[in-house]
Each structure stands twice: as C-alpha cells, then as structure tokens.
Design brief:
Strand content: 35-45%
Number of helices: 1
Order of helices and strands: HEEEEEEEEEEE
Shape: globular
Structural class: mainly beta
Largest sheet: 5 strands, antiparallel
Distance between the termini: 46 Å
Radius of gyration: 20 Å
Length: 182
C-alpha cells in the first residue's frame, strides 16, 4: 500500500513539474565562461573629463584592470544626480548567464557609489528589455548577478538608480564582466 502511494505521489510531482518553465541558476558559473571583452566598447551618460585624472572613462570598465575605473563627471556645477548609466556594445549577441560588477577599489571599500541599479539588454542599442533590478553591496570584491540566458543581447546597459548615502550625486565602478553559456 505504501509503495502505491509513493508511486502516485511521484507521478503527480513529475506531471506538476512538467508544466513549469525551466529555470536554471548558475551560482558558481561552472557551466558558464567569462566572455572576451577585448573588442567591446563602453559609453556613459557622464564620465571624468580629459586631464582631471588618469582614469574615469567608461572604457575602464572593460580593461580587466581593477585599478582603473569609470567615474561620473564632477567638473560641472551643479552636479547631475542619479540616475547614471553605462552602455556596453558587446559587438554580437551574448547569452548571458550572469554579470559581475566590481566597485572602484579602495583601502576601505567605497561607501558612496551606487546602492541600487538595473540591467537591461538590447539588440539594437535603442529598445531595451529589463533584465532585473539589483542591490549593490559595499565591498571591493566582484558581485555577481544571475540572468536568464534564454535570449541573446548585443548591448548591456547598467543604470545606477540611487546612491549608498542618498545624498551623493556621483557614481563609479571598476569592472563589468559578462559570463555566457558554454
């Protein structure tokens, strides 16, 4: 009798599971590879002007060097506030499993950059689809955010929505890495 009930329960669970959409999380990136970003380009709504410092351009997000960073423009007054965005042209569709975002590096992790952001994907750089909103922690380590690889996107847009302090108008990041399906 127990065996019969177990078989019926297993059958019902199998049938119930078949009607649900497939969802796979790649928390350890074991089934993903880091995309080659050597030919990619990045633009932003704002960046440090030439001559202000030796870094600060959106392109620093793609150079593989955590010592360089993108920083919004602080030479204008009044300082434009949030939101701030950076747009990465990946040159071809990428089936993204996750995106890793690294804070501007400091001896003590920076506490004044972005707190909340959204990621969007686009095929043409004009029309965007939401990939989710995320919270950004105060750490020097890369923070990885899972995405659904069900669609390929040529463009990845990160929009910083609010600051850690609620009063800072600027934001900055060191690196953005994309992990794709193997």
């Amino acid at each position: 009798m127990k065996t019969t009930y177990l078989c019926i329960a297993f059958g019902l669970l199998t049938i119930a599971g078949c009607s649900k959409p497939e969802a796979v999380l790649f928390k350890d990136n074991s089934t993903a590879i880091k995309a080659d970003k050597s030919s990619w380009t990045a633009t932003a709504d704002s960046e440090t002007p030439d001559g202000w410092e030796n870094t600060g351009k959106a392109s620093a997000l793609l150079d593989g060097n955590n010592a360089t960073y993108w920083h919004t423009d602080y030479s204008v007054s009044p300082t434009p506030g949030y939101p701030h965005w950076v747009l990465i042209d990946m040159k071809a569709d990428q089936y993204m499993v996750s995106v890793a975002v690294t804070n501007r590096q400091a001896a003590t992790p920076n506490r004044v950059g972005m707190k909340k952001f959204k990621l969007e994907g686009s095929r043409d750089g004009q029309t965007f689809t939401s990939l989710g909103e995320f919270n950004f922690g105060i750490t020097n380590a890369a923070q990885t955010y899972p995405l659904s690889p069900s669609e390929g996107w040529r463009y990845l847009k990160l929009t910083a929505l609010e600051s850690q302090t609620g009063t800072t108008a600027h934001t900055f990041l060191s690196e953005i890495d994309v992990f794709t399906t193997k």
